[in-house]
Each structure stands twice: as structure tokens, then as C-alpha cells.
Amino acid sequence: MKKLILPIFSGVLFIMVYSSCQKEMAKPQQVRMVVSRDLFSYDYNSTRLTDSRIIDNKKASLGRVLFYDKGVSVNNAKACASCHVQAFAFSDGNQVSMGFMQTPGTRNAMPLFNLPEDGFYFWDMRARNLKDMILDPAVHKTEMGMGSPEEIVKKFRGIGYIQDLFNHVYELEKDQDITEDRIRECLAEFVLSIQSHRSHFDGAAQNISQLPLEVQAGRSVFITAQCNNCHGEDNFNNQAMQNSSVVFVNHPPNFRDKDPYRKTPSEEKDSSNNAASIFFGQDFANIGLDYSYSDPGMSMDLLHFLNAKNPGQGFFKIPSLRNLAYTAPYMHDGRFATLDEVLNHYNREIKDNSVLDERLRIHVFGTDPNSFDVLPQHRKLNLSEEDIKNLKSFLLYLSDEQLVRDPKWSSPFVPVP
Ligand code: HEC
Ligand code: HEC
């Protein structure tokens, strides 16, 4: 009973005009667009995901349409893809992103790749599951302005080509149900499929001596400067990757084994919550951008839940260092326009605030090799210009051109020929 559905919508024209009663809203888009005929031709699975997690290609393909559809915002002005642009590794190139009424937000749009299904999302790590959080931007007051997920469902039910797509993907009879859960499922499937593992470095990681000399030198600076204490593992954010073939950068053992920042495993066991299970899942830090933060970052509740030893303001999720060639400006508030500004921060500008991450402070080892003191001051990196140049080469080598080019993640809408 699932005959001729494909021909129906692959040929269908639609005009992106939605009824909108609020006059002050942006003009609806009048361009005639169609869903590309090759919509269902891509394989969204990648070697980077485990065998146990197979992406449903039909759902991801429908998710791709929803991700690029401005109908997800209340006035048809913004799609997810307006702030998560493929050319910018799914960030948006702005210091902070603009919402559906062109009101600036307060944070830098995060790039989207290598996201886990269960992790911590947003700069302040407030959300815990991809499918559960996936419509948060849509119902955000300034980002996309939809009143509720039900409103999105209602709106989609009135759009013919979306109904056709759902009928096709879920093998429904005509005009069966578009549900909130299905919308979430498809969007999450698409976002989960965005995997980045094809940088020059991935190609050569097993063979460090084959890397260009300045990249090799930069990698050494990265390790001696202990960037990998926080930007470790192969997503360069301490997030252990599923199905990882190589761990490119190891944590220096003295930090990995006796991480001064977290409680020890036995302390973990004593604590009454279940934070231990997510111990190395995703990491966060205060890197001394300010003495006092205007954006408080992670909530105290979450910091306590995660057993942060010295909780306070200004803790943010550690971002991946993949794809920095595309993701400027940098930091939660996009304060640094260039990588040079970022490296200058770590080299000279760290503020010794009272909750500065211990991994950025001076450690003094005592006579007992198993203990050390942490001083209140940050450690000085003393990077030379040469070091910085090399470090930059290494960091940029982690960028994945295929991520920003692969058509399977591009807009599925094409203008009417
Ligand atoms: C108006 C711009 C804007 C729009 C539209 C938008 N986002 Fe975002 N997105 C952001 C910003 C800004 C953040 C960081 C927000 C924060 O930390 O509070 C973010 C964060 C995220 C994250 C978390 C990533 C991480 O590493 O933790 C995901 C996932 C995400 N957005 C997906 C989506 C999806 C799906 C849509 C469409 C339903 C969407 N976004 C629409 C700006 C936007
Ligand atoms: C204590 C943990 C920690 C250490 C050590 C550390 N970083 Fe970071 N890094 C972070 C956090 C957390 C952020 C985001 C901070 C924010 O936005 O407030 C960040 C942000 C960045 C960014 C911006 C990425 C983006 O997408 O916005 C770059 C680039 C970066 N770090 C490079 C480095 C380099 C190079 C080193 C070594 C010199 C280093 N980091 C050392 C935790 C750390």
C-alpha cells in the first residue's frame, strides 16, 4: 500500500507562503522552491558511528528538509539552517545569532557535528538528550518563536509537501499523522548524522611523522601547553568518541589519572548521584575569560551534579577544536574574531578568577609524587610567535572540508528550474 508516493512529491512544486496574521513580521518568502528530486538518495551512515547505531536514511532525509525549512519559525523567517550553516560547519559566522525578528541573542551559534545522542547540549550544557532538546530552538522566544511543539505540528499538517514526506517516510496512508515525536525523530536523526572525521589529520593521524613539519611542531605545542587536558580525545573536547579507531592525543598521564579537577573514583562512589556514569562524557571549564562573567554559564545545580570541585560562574561546555577554519568567531559569546585572538588569550590574557579551572593553574609537585598543590595563578604558556604559528597550523589541520561540502547535508530545496 505504499505505491506512487514518491512520484507525487518529487514532482510537486510548493510556494513558501504561509498564512501569518501578525503584520509586523518579516515578509514571507515568495521564491518558488521544490524539494530536490535526489532527496532520498543519500546514505547518512558513516564509519564514525558505531555499528549499533544505524541512521535511518529516510528519516534523516526528511529531517534534512525540516532543518532547512523556514516554516519551523513562527514568521517563516528562520530555519535551523539559518543559524547552523553548512559552510560554517553548521555555526553561523556571527558573534551572536539573530532571531526570527532580527533580535540578537546572547550566545554564539554552536557548530553541529559529532554530537552524541545522549550528551550535554548548549553552551551551558542544560539539555541532556538530542531528541528531547531538538525543538528547544524552535520554541525559543527570540530564536524561532513558535509557541509550542504542538503549534509546529499544527502548522506542518497544513503544508502539503511536508504531509507527503511524512506519509512516504512513515509509510502512512494519505494525510495520516504528523506527530511531534516524528518531527523530533527526523530532526535528531539528521543532526546525529552530521559526523566529521575526514580532516587531513584524520587521514594521517596514525603516521605523525608524515605530517607537514609545522603541523607536527604545532601538535607538540598543543601537548606541552596541555591543551589536550581539556581538548583531548579525538573530538578534541574530551568527549570519547564512539567507534574511535585512533585516540590522536592522549591526556598526559599525571592529569588523566589524578585529575585534580574532579573527585576521585572512590569519592565518586560516595556521592549520592549518578554523575559517575557520565564522568568523561562531556567536559566543561572556566577558562578565565573574565574576572566576573555577564553570562553565568552552567547552573550551580548542574555543576554540583557533575561534581565540579570548585563551582561558580563562567563554566561552559568545552567545544571541539575540529573545523576551526569554519567556525569563527569563537567562544560562547563569540568575543574572539580570530584564532590569533584565542591563542593570545591562552598565552597572555587568562584572568585569575577564583574559579579558574585547575588545569590552567600552576601545579607544584611535592616530595610525594602522588600529590601536588594547585596555586591560584594560571600557568604561563610563554608561547613564542613561532609556537603560535605552528599551533595554528595544527589546529587548522583538523578542519574537514567534506563536512562543509557534502551534498547530503546541504539544502534540499532547489529553485524551480
Ligand atoms: C536564531 C539562531 C538559531 C536557530 C534558528 C537555531 N539555533 Fe541551534 N543554536 C543556536 C545558538 C545560539 C546555540 C547555543 C545556545 C546556548 O548555548 O544557549 C545553539 C545550539 C544548538 C545545539 C546544541 C549544540 C551543542 O553542541 O550543544 C543544537 C543541537 C542546535 N542548536 C540545533 C538546532 C536545531 C535543530 C534548530 C532548528 C529547530 C536550531 N538549532 C535553530 C542558534 C540557533
Ligand atoms: C581548562 C580546560 C581548557 C584548556 C586547558 C584549554 N581550553 Fe580551549 N576551551 C575550553 C573551554 C571551556 C572553551 C569555551 C569557553 C567559553 O566559551 O567560555 C574553550 C574554547 C577554545 C577555543 C574556541 C573554540 C570555539 O569553537 O569557540 C579554542 C580555539 C581553544 N579553546 C583552543 C585551546 C588551545 C589551543 C588550548 C591550549 C593552549 C586550550 N584551548 C586549552 C577549555 C580549555
Report on this structure.
Helix content is 30%, strand content 8%. By secondary structure, it is an alpha+beta fold. It folds into two domains: 5-196 and 404-415, Cytochrome Bc1 Complex, Chain D, domain 2 (Orthogonal Bundle), CATH 1.10.760; 200-399, Cytochrome Bc1 Complex, Chain D, domain 2, CATH 1.10.760.10. α2 packs across α8 and α10 (213-224) packs across α15. The longest helix has 14 residues, at 180-193. The radius of gyration is 23 Å and the shape is globular. It starts with a helix and ends with a strand. Mean pLDDT is 84; it is low at 1-26 and 242-280. Bound molecules: heme C (2 copies). One heme C is lined by residues 72, 78, 80, 82-84, 97, 99, 105, 107, 109-110, 112, 115, 121-124, 134, 137-138, 143-144, 187, 191.
- CATH C-level class of the largest domain is Mainly Alpha
What's the number of domains?
2
Return the CATH topology of the largest domain: Cytochrome Bc1 Complex, Chain D, domain 2
Poorly predicted regions: 1-26, 242-280
Write the CATH homologous superfamily of the largest domain: Cytochrome c-like domain
Quaternary structure annotation: single chain
Helical residue percent? 25-40%
